[in-house]
Amino acid sequence: IMAIKNNNINKGLLELIKHAKVEQSSCDSYHFGFMLGPRVNAAGRMDHALNAVRLFTSNNPQQINTLALKLNSLNIKRQELTEKMLKEALVEAQKQIDAQKKLLFIVKDGWSEGIVGLVAGRLNERFHLPVLVGSIKNGMVRGSARSIPGFDITSAISQADELLEKFGGHNQAAGFTLLEENLEAFIEKIQEVAVENLS
């Protein structure tokens, strides 16, 4: 932030600030966290993270402008896709809430793998329950989990490790991959763990 105030700034970052319509002189931690950060993050979620690396390492003004525009556009698409997926997920989440599930598990064909974590986080905040959200593509389920204090989601997932191809994370967030043929058994096991461990 001090570098921005002193005009000693990376050319790519300066271009990103311009496209985010942030006043350079007033740029602070809020702008980095909620306006610039999501644009950088959108590169990896929606396309390829190398686009963000190239933005910050290029000295070519035309390439810098093109990449900043691309990250801005990807962020808009990311926002729209997140809202679309969240709207679809809320319908299924409400059914599970009505069925008094202790943990929400929502999976759909063709959802964006880069967005499932955002949707899981939003559902977790809304319902204050552990949430797993996954995407099915080509016989594989890839998903992301978010939890609540007192329920270690990675430990819960590990209790079904024989059904998983891979998983990892920490007590409040995790990622997982499994074959679609193991999905029902995995959902059943993780729901059992939730019932045993959540009041």
Report on the structure:
The chain has eight helices and five strands, in the order H-H-H-H-H-E-H-E-E-H-E-E-H. It has 199 residues and is an alpha+beta fold. A five-stranded mixed β-sheet has the order 1-2-3-5-4, with helices on both faces. Helix 3 packs across helix 5, helix 4 runs antiparallel to helix 5 and helix 5 (61-98) packs across helix 6. The longest helix is centred in the middle third of the chain and has 38 residues, at 61-98. The protein is elongated.
The end-to-end distance, rounded to whole angstroms, is: 45 Å
Q: Approximately how much beta-strand content do the residues carry?
A: 15-25%
Q: In terms of per-residue confidence, which ranges show pLDDT below 50 for 5 or more consecutive residues?
A: none
Q: What is the total tally of β strands?
A: 5
Helical region count?
A: 8
Q: Could you describe the largest sheet, including whether it forms a barrel? A: 5 strands, mixed
What is the helix/strand order? HHHHHEHEEHEEH
What structural category characterises the helix and strand content? Answer: alpha+beta
Shape: elongated
Q: Please list the strands of the largest sheet in the order they lie side by side.
A: 1-2-3-5-4
In short:
The protein has 199 residues and is α+β, with helices and mostly antiparallel strands. Helices cover 55% and strands 16% of the residues.
